[in-house]
Give the backbone structure.
Amino acid sequence: MAEIISNVQLSRGIYLMKVRGQFQGKMGQFYMIRAWDKDPVLSRPLSIYSLEENSISFLYQVKGKGTTIFSKLNPKEEIKLVGPYGNGFPLVKGRVALLGGGMGAAPLYLAGQTLKQQKGLEKLDIYLGFQKRAFLKNEFNKIADRLVIDIGGLITERIEVDQYDYILTCGPDAMMQALIRKTEGSKAKVYLSIEKRMACGMGTCLVCTCKSRKGNIKVCKDGPVFRGSDIYDE
Amino acid sequence: MAEIISNVQLSRGIYLMKVRGQFQGKMGQFYMIRAWDKDPVLSRPLSIYSLEENSISFLYQVKGKGTTIFSKLNPKEEIKLVGPYGNGFPLVKGRVALLGGGMGAAPLYLAGQTLKQQKGLEKLDIYLGFQKRAFLKNEFNKIADRLVIDIGGLITERIEVDQYDYILTCGPDAMMQALIRKTEGSKAKVYLSIEKRMACGMGTCLVCTCKSRKGNIKVCKDGPVFRGSDIYDE
Amino acid sequence: MMNKFNDQLRVDFAGVNFKNPIILSSGTAGFGQELNDVYNIELLGGLSTKGLTLRQRSGNVGTRIWETPAGIMNSIGLENPGIRKFIEQELDFLEKIDLVNIVNIGGSTLEDYIETVKIVSELKVDMIELNISCPNLKKGGMSFGIKAKTAAKITREIRKITDLPLVVKLSPQARNISEVALACQGAGADGLSLVNTFKAMAIDIEAKKPVFENIYAGLSGPAIKPIALRMVHEVCQAVEIPVMGVGGISSWQDAVEYIMAGASLVQIGTANFINPRAGLEILKGLNNYFEKNKIESINQIRGII
Amino acid sequence: MMNKFNDQLRVDFAGVNFKNPIILSSGTAGFGQELNDVYNIELLGGLSTKGLTLRQRSGNVGTRIWETPAGIMNSIGLENPGIRKFIEQELDFLEKIDLVNIVNIGGSTLEDYIETVKIVSELKVDMIELNISCPNLKKGGMSFGIKAKTAAKITREIRKITDLPLVVKLSPQARNISEVALACQGAGADGLSLVNTFKAMAIDIEAKKPVFENIYAGLSGPAIKPIALRMVHEVCQAVEIPVMGVGGISSWQDAVEYIMAGASLVQIGTANFINPRAGLEILKGLNNYFEKNKIESINQIRGII
Ligand SMILES: Cc1cc2nc3c(=O)[nH]c(=O)nc-3n(C[C@H](O)[C@H](O)[C@H](O)COP(=O)(O)OP(=O)(O)OC[C@H]3O[C@@H](n4cnc5c(N)ncnc54)[C@H](O)[C@@H]3O)c2cc1C
Ligand SMILES: Cc1cc2nc3c(=O)[nH]c(=O)nc-3n(C[C@H](O)[C@H](O)[C@H](O)COP(=O)(O)OP(=O)(O)OC[C@H]3O[C@@H](n4cnc5c(N)ncnc54)[C@H](O)[C@@H]3O)c2cc1C
Ligand SMILES: Cc1cc2nc3c(=O)[nH]c(=O)nc-3n(C[C@H](O)[C@H](O)[C@H](O)COP(=O)(O)O)c2cc1C
Ligand SMILES: Cc1cc2nc3c(=O)[nH]c(=O)nc-3n(C[C@H](O)[C@H](O)[C@H](O)COP(=O)(O)O)c2cc1C
Ligand code: FES
Ligand code: FES
């Protein structure tokens, strides 16, 4: 049980929730979250948006039953977090781009913060695509060497992939696939964070299995971050 | 859907909840209430405590799942009421006593208010028994010709039944049975409001069936108010 | 016939015309009068009465209701006024209102069923629902619905003595529900309804006793929907006669699932306790769904899975 | 053997000593390592592995999980590394930790089951749970557990080739679960576990398709508890061999209900997804309950209903 510090709507259906406590976690990892007893049965996975000394934050979009309940929580109310789970993004160096589509921005903020502190980072550009309205522009601006925002278009068209050694990405499947196609033949290595319905979040139930070039993988435990080339044809 | 105006704890586990709206109802009737979607399945019956022009109030004790949810509701939050259901207390005259044990006080406040406005009422005495602490003393005092409060003892021992033409009562089974025994041979007529688990609240499901001298009765529809002599041996 | 809803919701079921596929299920709507005080139940397709037996029954003693996660267990034990009092006290109302009235008939012995059906067959009612699936009787009830042979036998006997459209209500405790369904079809049933409640148990660990005097009781409500839907799908694959789907329906989406699984009509039970206007609200949702998707007849979506 | 809980929670089940009656159920705890990172699973009585088959299986395609009121449906389809990879990768850990390890074995054909059991019988494992009740396979799986005859046959064949304690896991789809239970007992099972998931269905009304590729999938979780408990009670009345109760257990009170209904051990499945510490918390609750009520052995309350 942890206490909610704040839970504010940033844009229509998009919320940033801050929870009190000393939590663990690395960029790209997630927590299994619930604010109800036994119905719905499953907790909801949310990526760590940011991690402060005495709090943790999540950026989420209202989709269905669970996230609707989250969106109605008030400060001081309680929430259950279990985690952190998953492998997280690798600590890459050199010229790095983060590319997010919609809610895909969620894990990229902590990724940016973390990489900023890395020795050997040469540049950190952030590309964010939104359908209607941008959010958290200021926050991302603070950590990006260059912040590119696209609204309503295809963010993958705004990036020159050859500029980068690594591209870390998260977002809709179509966006990630487009990126993979675009990096074909380039030296840029892509790491993507993928989403699958989960039950356990820790690798015991095989609900989140995904086919990959290396055979079946568990998104929750082997991922959610994978080399692009393992998931899609590059 | 109705909006909660206030929901205050009067004593440990005892709450008074006021809900906005123009509601119908007579003394002794009840509403089927829920503040959740489909789980738990059943609504909870609560007697009308009082009825004002633009609100209705309920006095309730936290017992289990449903009443715990009620107790956590804040002003402006929503609640669903269906009703009023049940027959309610009869409009009696002459010398009248109201006798309540614990939560049995709930329907008696509206009963007192209503009877006060009756022509032909000669006196209205109110007897309330509590286990540990009295509540709503002032409110009942305003409508009673005489208010007798008992804490920790047996309220039935404090009433002289022959003084009254009618006694309207609500409370634990043992209390109501003791009253019936005490009125044996006296002219005082007893009307009691009884409790049974309910599903529909309106007489369709036969969940609340109770044996009586007149055969099976539905507590929700034929009652919840019955002549004492129909339910217990007088 | 008043009908403020879409005409395309009409269903012909065993020769009987329903305004729409929504039926109030047996035991959850009494004989209609109380719910009709809440809203005009004539808007619905039909109503199945509380299960009636030859003689008045006072039902089971002890706890009659228990809540479970997303469900309820009941042990009413077919309390009912008996068929004669029903005729005296309730039939009038049912004859007057304009929706298909289905008389649900229970019993302990074959003779009782036969006697009751004989009486009902003389009445102005629209349809019989033969309940061979009540789990709350010590004798009879569900035991007729477990095996294909006994289910066929009782259906055959009843078929002989009535010309009313005959629907047999199946038990989820059936050893093989499709076999039982086929047997009833073979024995002359005009339609089927399923499922009745699931035989289930709860224990009061403080008292160290079963919650219910009969030890077992019947589980219903949203909890059972996935299993009941599967059974309806299986039965619809097996039989030719039309099916009424019952079990945990509490939204119009649930109703659409049942129809897509093959049901021609759906019955709303426990949902009436969640919200007394459930029948009407599900009907409204279905009506919107039909309009939005330009569905011209239920057959366009029925059984497409 | 470390045991910070009450000694009086010990259970002898078919000659195997369990520290306490709490077992992690097959398919909901993998092979133990992940949950052991959350808490020390050696505190529990036992663990049943993910169902293993002779060859590696990649499981079902399409949606694998769906939420229902107070339940979930799954269609994993016995994805597993196959018995040999299990031995390579997982057995070591299970051998080292101090709790009863139960190897759950699934399969499509009798030959597969036999081959797998032969291999397992050479290993240092404590018990076999023969899963003849998985509803998510197109071939085999549950179909062995529907009728007494086929259940007896496979049990008999397996009994012949293994000396390991043999528990047969029954299906709630059994035509008559007590008959199947008796048949397994007659064929040499040392114990039974029940139930596996309920065959159930969900339809995606937008896509006009079943949610699951296999059309049906297995329902588990709190929703099924009342039915599963009833089945455990029925089976415990019928057989002499001990029974593990499974189905919707999510609190210590649920566990006590199963024990009072006759179960010697209980398995925790879906509850592990509600709370990964569910096994431990249920154990703690049970421990308190034993202490408060001065219960000296599980037999004092087992089967008292
Ligand atoms: C590792 C990981 C990290 C994530 N991080 C974030 C994050 O930081 N921020 C964020 O906003 N979201 C994140 N998500 C997504 C988030 O978990 C989901 O949006 C959330 O669980 C939806 O829950 P809900 O109860 O609101 O919606 P639900 O009511 O469960 O469903 C929403 C929609 O999905 C459909 N659906 C339901 N079940 C299934 C199923 N089995 N398969 C396919 N579709 C189904 C429903 O029909 C409905 O349309 C993450 C997901 C993963 C796996
Ligand atoms: C007509 C009427 C009017 C009422 N008016 C009031 C009122 O004004 N104020 C007030 O405080 N209360 C009133 N009650 C009582 C109130 O309805 C209950 O206390 C309430 O429903 C309890 O709900 P819960 O969810 O909190 O408790 P639950 O969790 O449902 O149960 C509480 C306790 O009852 C036990 N229980 C559960 N189901 C059953 C069952 N089927 N049979 C027997 N015991 C069971 C549980 O084990 C638990 O110990 C009234 C009842 C009726 C019938
Ligand atoms: C309180 C109650 C009483 C019932 N009585 C009857 C009955 O008399 N006859 C009958 O055929 N079914 C009876 N049923 C079963 C319902 O008609 C229905 O088949 C079952 O509840 C499943 O549907 P549901 O989940 O929508 O409630 C009863 C159910 C409940 C909850
Ligand atoms: C995701 C999942 C996977 C399962 N896999 C298996 C399995 O491999 N073998 C088996 O015998 N049972 C399997 N089961 C069934 C459970 O062991 C258990 O019998 C069932 O879920 C009922 O218990 P519950 O309601 O506590 O979950 C699985 C259940 C779930 C939810
Ligand atoms: S969610 Fe259970 S294995 Fe990934
Ligand atoms: S609660 Fe349904 S008849 Fe009384």
Observations:
- The first strand of chain A starts at residue 2 and ends at 11.
